[in-house]
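so the lab meeting is tmrw and i was supposed to have these ready like two days ago... anyway. pasting both below. for each one the top line is the aa sequence and the line under it is the structure tokens. i havent really looked at them closely yet so no promises
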Amino acid sequence: MAFVRELLDHFVRYRRLRGFTALGARRAAAARSYRAHALDAITRRKPGTGGGWDEVAGFRIRHLGSEWMRYIYREVFAQREYWFVTDASEPFILDCGGNIGMSTLFFKSIYPHARVEVFEPAPWACDAMRETFAANDLRDITVHNVALAEREGELVLHHDADEPGSAVMSVFPGESLDAAHVVPAVRLSSFVTRRVDYMKLDIEGSELPVLREMAAAGALSMVEQIGMEFHHHLDPSEDRLGECLTLLEQQGFGYQITGQVYTPITRGQFQGLMIHAYRKHPAAH
């Protein structure tokens, strides 16, 4: 039964990609990439170890590990977690938590003339995405090898030394994060000098401090839409979701929340919640 559910899940995602007209000319290539990745998953074919090059949605991508690359591809392209609609022909996007650049490729697929500022603390991931952007001759992208925080300075990035391509890295210690790397920390508000059409936040537990800093600096009022992965119960003893939602409401945002519900309910269990926030203009009140 589990195998049948897996097949159905892959089929639904594949069909949705085939019908995702926002991808334009890259729609067929995106579906083809997913078909190849799904086939590997169904046949339990183990991906090669180490980094290399692959093809996603018609782009050549430099990755640091096939398994994590495919995971991020499914999240970004197949599940479309960061899809947004705007009237801007050249939207300004903040990609916070860029990893190997998959979400920036997605943004460039749906809005080819977008201007994207990417923030990623891991230098090895920044090197990979710069190679990807150069290989595909992508313009109007700036990569910042920094962590985002409430105050400028330095932070320790905890990561898995054996999995450089892992999307699980954080400035907060974790059991599987056995290596540490000191990185510069900056305030996101210092990069906001104009209207931000979309802000992606996937920064492994630092999202609330960054939102606080943006709000205190008056920069959050310049953001139209937010796609944020909220790491609920990263610390099982802390409940900060209410604070996050209250801050968004006070800043004039409405929101929708998606996330997996685990049963039976376990106190303090971690949940990755997607919060899709949108600015309420005066006409909507």
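ok protien two:
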Amino acid sequence: MAREEGKRKLTAPLAALAKYKYALLVAVLGALLLLWPTGEKKAAAAAGEPAAVSGTGREELEEMERAMEEILGKISGVGKVDVMLSLHSGGERVLAQDSSLRYSGSVQSPDSYERSTQPVTDGGGVVVTKETCPQYRGALVVCEGGGDDGVRLQVAKAVSALTGLGSDRIAVVKWQDAPTAGSAGQPSMK
């Protein structure tokens, strides 16, 4: 009789396990996938420090604005033009890292560790493994032809193509006319 009770105690959990074996298998596989390391985490962990380096500075943003001014100025009817871009997030460059680990003492129980990392270079430059472009928040274009609807449409299309912004994030306005001597900012009564 004691033997039958022992069998019942043993078979009850096994029956429950058999009943939910697929759900348990899916849960275990899901947990393993969550713990699976990705390549970026491995590279950062091997380097011992963050490998991402900010690559977009104020100079690069100004260079993009100048390039846009130059190309937009070539559109018929635009005339003199100024461009201002605002960033949502800057670009990023991930550099290839070479890391080394030195230790003193025995392999089983080392006394101290020393980890060093340095960027990988090829000839004259640093090797970049990944580069992302900046994300723009908005654009303001001030141009002489900004009072004409056709010019505004062409400029907005061009800025959208260059930055990826939607037309709701691009403002194209007319360049302020220089005030005449004696008007000092007063509207003319012509």
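from a quick look at the 2nd one: DSSP finds five helices and ten strands in the chain. Helices lie at 2-19, 21-35, 39-47, 58-72, 149-163. will dig more after coffe
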